[in-house]
Specification:
Layout lengths: L10 E4 L13 H9 L5 E5 L4 H14 L3 E5 L15 H13 L5 E2 L7 H12 L4 H12 L14 H11 L5 H11 L2 H21 L2 H5 L10 H5 L6 E3 L12 H8 L7 E2 L5 E2 L7 E3 L9 H4 L9
Parallel strand pairs: 1-2, 2-3, 3-4
Antiparallel strand pairs: 5-8, 6-7
Organism: Paenibacillus popilliae ATCC 14706
Protein name: Methionine synthase I
Pfam family, one: S-methyl_trans
Length: about 300
């Protein structure tokens, strides 16, 4: 943003009309060339036509683009009364085919799509297909391995205790905790070796590194009181929070991401092991605010007890 000097991630979507060009007369190659120098997060096609007309353009676009690609077609072409007839199942099947070819990174629907279309599409993309359909997004996480740090008794007891706090591992914790309680009172242990490592945890929090990477850094004048009061841009919610209170919703997330590949497991009560593990959903929109799902659903005619 020129006014603030901030760099924000952005996406671009354009329409290819039935005649094969944009309204400005660009074909898909010209459309890509005119936009790629802006370095957007993604470029995509939306609206104008249904998935059949989008197919060839999307295939060509995927071979040209150096960014992520999105696709939000209409539910077919409208009839003379403005009605769209592409069913949720049919639209989901066609867009899933695009994903299986590796042509897109983000999918959705435009004109004529309904909540049922939007429900069926992620179901088809995430659950009704094989792992290859999830392609690069899930593979980026699934192929990662954990470099386990082997703790040795050669390091001081205090150093080992401090490392448990940051790394979130329980391996070796109980024996070391037993030794520590023979040497320290619980309060001295907290105020001593554990408090020193809490300074490192606080430093990571204060540095605001995550939001800076996403292009939404905190204002330099923001105080810690304002930060703890969630005055920053965006929200982060985890299962069990008022915004998504059902812990069992962890299960489909684990099916998608396979965190067991990095040593994180889900218990029968939908809690995570190791105990310091965290899952979260992050929204960076400027108007995103924390909310209570029970309050948000009050008065909704489709809500049942």
């Amino acid at each position: 943003m020129e006014t603030t000097g901030q760099k924000l991630p952005f996406i671009i979507a354009g329409t290819i009309e039935p005649m094969g060009t944009t309204l400005a007369g660009q074909n898909i190659e010209s459309f890509n060339i005119s936009l790629e120098h802006l370095n957007p997060l993604s470029i995509g096609l939306n609206c104008a036509t249904g998935p059949e007309f989008t197919r060839d353009h999307l295939r060509s676009f995927s071979a040209l683009s150096r960014t992520a690609i999105s696709c939000y077609p209409n539910a077919g072409l409208p009839d003379e009364n403005g009605h769209y007839h592409e069913s949720p199942k049919s639209l989901a099947r066609k867009i899933t085919t695009f994903a299986e070819q590796g042509w897109l990174n983000t999918a959705g629907g435009c004109c004529g799509t309904t909540p049922e279309h939007e429900r069926k599409l992620p179901e088809a993309l995430l659950y009704d297909t094989n792992d290859e359909t999830l392609a690069e997004f899930v593979a980026a996480f699934r192929n990662r391995t954990v470099d386990k740090k082997v703790k040795t008794n050669d390091s001081p007891l205090e150093e080992r205790l401090a490392s448990y706090l940051v790394e979130g591992t329980k391996e070796g914790l109980i024996p070391d905790l037993t030794l520590a309680l023979e040497k320290y009172s619980p309060l001295d242990m907290i105020n001593g070796p554990l408090m020193k490592r809490m300074e490192e945890v606080g430093r990571l929090f204060n540095n605001n590194e995550m939001r800076e990477v996403w292009g939404i850094p905190d204002p330099t004048e923001m105080t810690m009181k304002e930060r703890f009061g969630a005055r920053y841009q965006g929200i982060r919610v985890s299962f069990g929070y008022p915004a998504c209170p059902n812990l069992e919703d962890q299960e489909p997330l684990f099916r998608l991401m396979h965190p067991e590949d990095i040593g994180v497991h889900l218990t029968e009560g939908f809690m995570m092991e190791p105990e310091a593990s965290v899952t979260a959903i992050v929204f960076t929109h400027p108007q995103a605010t924390y909310f209570n799902v029970d309050l948000a659903l009050e008065g909704c005619p489709h809500t049942h007890n």
